[in-house]
Write a structure and sequence with these properties.
This is Malonyl-CoA decarboxylase C-terminal domain-containing protein. The protein is an alpha+beta fold. The protein has one domain. The chain contains 4 helices and 4 strands. The strands form 2 sheets. It has a two-stranded antiparallel ribbon. Strands 2-3 form a two-stranded antiparallel ribbon. The longest helix is centred in the last third of the chain and has 14 residues. The chain is globular and about 35 Å long. The two termini are about 20 Å apart.
Length: about 110
Amino acid sequence: MITFFSYPFLANFHLKNGAVLWRINWQADQSHRGLANSCGIMVNYRYFLDECESNSRTYLESQEIILSDSVKFLVNTALSKVVKKGSESSSVPLPHPRSPTPPLITVTPDSKI
């Protein structure tokens, strides 16, 4: 989970309604406007009806955004590049066992983040 209220209206709408930040799509919008607004990055949200109320309450009360396994993997990988090893809070809590599939974006030691 990441703690903060989302600024973009659309993200805030989905998160307030209990969605999970499911996937990050690199170079999804390569138009001039898309590149200017978000470097071309777009995201997908997914709703699990049995968890929507709980996710919504969590977001509204503590500004925690529920992430999919693949997004948690990306966050942990990015944090490991910028946070010193051994530091507290250098990773996001282990993923919810919802999705056994590997991340949609593979990050290797040679990747440039």
